[in-house]
Write a structure and sequence with these properties.
The complex is a heterodimer. Chain A is an all-alpha fold. Chain A is built from 11 helices and 2 strands. Chain B is an alpha/beta fold. In chain B, about 40% of the residues lie in helices and about 25% in strands. The chains are: A mainly alpha, B alpha/beta. The interface between A and B is medium-sized, with 17 and 22 residues.
Chain lengths: ~300, ~240
């Protein structure tokens, strides 16, 4: 009897951990775009959550109107958001790239408000969800239930993160993005045009938001107002993980996912945000460069 | 005498209302090493900025047959006017290899880039050994090699090296000067901007001495080294 209790407790714990990790992969993808833009352009994009929301609606409408599977719609959602991000950067944000942080906060907050209101007007305030036929499928591994869509979302999120990492490390443009972030003056000296790099970077950040939004629509409900919370979560993950590498963001995302799942079970679902932002505060105090960042 | 690569005529440059450079005349011939020397605040860096088109001025600058006066820094760079900035300005978090590749950012031909990379590694074997290390972790001399190597990756016609010797040990400076005389044989012209007058004149063919915004002396390196004014000004003899 006691043994059975231990087994079921262990099983519950591993189920919670798995849920947390799966959620964390998606969190990481959400935060990745924010961290990229922050690191390169020095803009904390308060409209990042709104871009995730737009990506979710692109996935939703492609699914409901054209019957395109959300996982196949992912590249389309990313492409649409890349264009949105590129144009936002070229039209508005280039005015404030590398400007004082306060200006960037004001402008991106304004963009967030506009996008949210437009979404409410055009998409209505109703809750939506992207619901493919396999949405309810599960499979069991070692007694742990794995929801199919969450596993797929996790895998895709991780693949996109790795793809971004490889892009930044091994391509000419990826190098230019990192060089611009590290030493703008020297990058200019060797023919890098910062405005083009900024627009590309912001476009990439928005594309990642679009991909994350599409996946979010599959595993959760969407409405025009999800942006604010998602921005806050992405911000927390970027801080926890540090801005230096995509790996840090993945660690931050999974860490937050696991903490949230554990909190929801053992303390109570209403305490989830207290736990995640409490950790954010602790990280800021004790490891201001992120969990993996340099300690000095 | 080989053909003139860079010609400056009657250049005046100022920051706002304050004139900094007055009536500068200067020639650099293809394949030469020319030293631009002068003390701190004489206007060397301002002249360099005017040449790389970061600062506008009045007067005429011709480079390789093109009138530079109305070109942007980018267009000057595309013509082969490449700067190795003061203080190296490397991408500290990136590897030596990546820093070198950033020099070739505007070039597209992979084969040609690879060939230049090989020649840079041949000039600086240390850079090859350290190619996977972060540039920020190199010693000062190695960082300067990396900065010069990055400049060479852009296939310059004129390489403008700003304050190369700053903060380096004499033995390292000698090594770097030797490299400059090697690369000049590879059809790269060098403008060496230096506070360390005698180090610069050791390797240069000719030199210009600039003081409070005007060229006060010019001539062959030997003439300048022997010149009583230069000795008085820079050695205090």
């Amino acid at each position: 009897m006691e043994q059975a209790l231990v087994v079921s407790t262990m099983q519950l714990l591993s189920q919670i951990l798995v849920n947390g990790v799966l959620l964390g992969g998606l969190y990481a993808l959400m935060a990745l775009g924010l961290a990229l833009v922050w690191g390169v352009l020095n803009i904390v994009n308060l409209a990042h959550g709104a871009l995730i929301m737009l990506g979710a609606y692109v996935g939703y409408y492609l699914f409901t109107l054209l019957n395109i599977d959300p996982f196949l719609a992912l590249p389309l959602s990313m492409a649409v958001l890349f264009c949105v991000g590129y144009l936002l950067q070229r039209g508005i944000l280039n005015l404030i790239a590398r400007a004082a942080m306060f200006n960037t906060l004001l402008i991106t907050f304004g963009i967030d408000v506009v996008l949210t209101q437009l979404a409410q007007i055009f998409f209505s305030a109703d809750f939506r969800t992207i619901n493919p036929s396999y949405a309810g499928s599960n499979f069991m591994v070692f007694g742990v239930t794995l929801p199919l869509v969450r596993v797929l979302a996790f895998v895709v999120a991780l693949a996109l993160t790795i793809a971004l990492w490889l892009f930044l490390l091994h391509t000419r443009l990826g190098r230019a993005i990192r060089a611009t972030a590290q030493n703008l003056g020297a990058a200019r000296l060797y023919g890098v045009e910062p405005k083009a790099i900024y627009a590309l970077t912001f476009g990439l950040g928005a594309a990642l938001a679009g991909g994350a939004g599409d996946l979010y629509g599959v595993v959760s409900q969407i409405n025009p107002y999800i942006g604010a919370t998602l921005t806050a979560k992405s911000f927390a993950i970027a801080i926890i993980g540090g801005l230096e590498s995509p790996l840090g963001v993945v660690v931050g995302g999974i860490f937050l996912g696991v903490v949230e799942s554990l909190t929801a079970l053992y303390i109570g679902p209403t305490f989830v945000d207290i736990a995640s932002f409490g950790i954010l505060v602790l990280v800021l105090i004790f490891r201001p460069n992120g969990l993996l960042g340099a300690t000095t | 005498m080989s053909e003139i690569l860079l010609n400056v005529q009657g250049l005046f440059v100022g920051y706002g209302e304050v004139p900094v450079l007055r009536d500068i005349h200067m020639d650099i011939r293809r394949g030469e090493i020319v030293a631009l020397v002068g003390s701190n605040g004489a206007g060397k860096t301002t002249l360099l900025r005017a040449l790389s088109r970061v600062l506008a001025g009045t007067g005429k600058i011709t480079f390789d047959g093109h009138d530079l006066t109305h070109l942007t820094p980018d267009q000057g760079f595309a013509l082969g006017l490449v700067q190795v900035p003061e203080g190296r300005q490397l991408f500290d978090q990136m590897t030596v290899f990546e820093n070198l590749m950033m020099g070739a950012f505007r070039r597209r031909s992979k084969g040609a880039i690879h060939a230049t990379l090989e020649s840079v590694y041949a000039l600086f074997p240390t850079l090859y050994e350290r190619r996977t290390q972060r540039a920020g972790s190199l010693s000062g001399g190695e960082q300067q090699m990396c900065a010069i190597g990055r400049g060479l990756m852009a296939t310059p016609k004129l390489l403008m090296v700003d304050e190369m010797s700053l903060g380096l040990a004499p033995v390292i400076i000698d090594q770097l000067l030797e490299v400059l005389s090697t690369i000049r044989k590879q059809d790269v012209t060098v403008l060496l901007v230096e506070q360390d007058v005698f180090a610069a004149l050791e390797v240069a063919d000719r030199g210009y001495v600039i003081e409070t915004g005007a060229v006060t002396q010019s001539g062959t390196a030997l003439e300048l080294t022997e010149s009583p004014e230069v000795k008085r000004a820079y050695l205090g003899i």
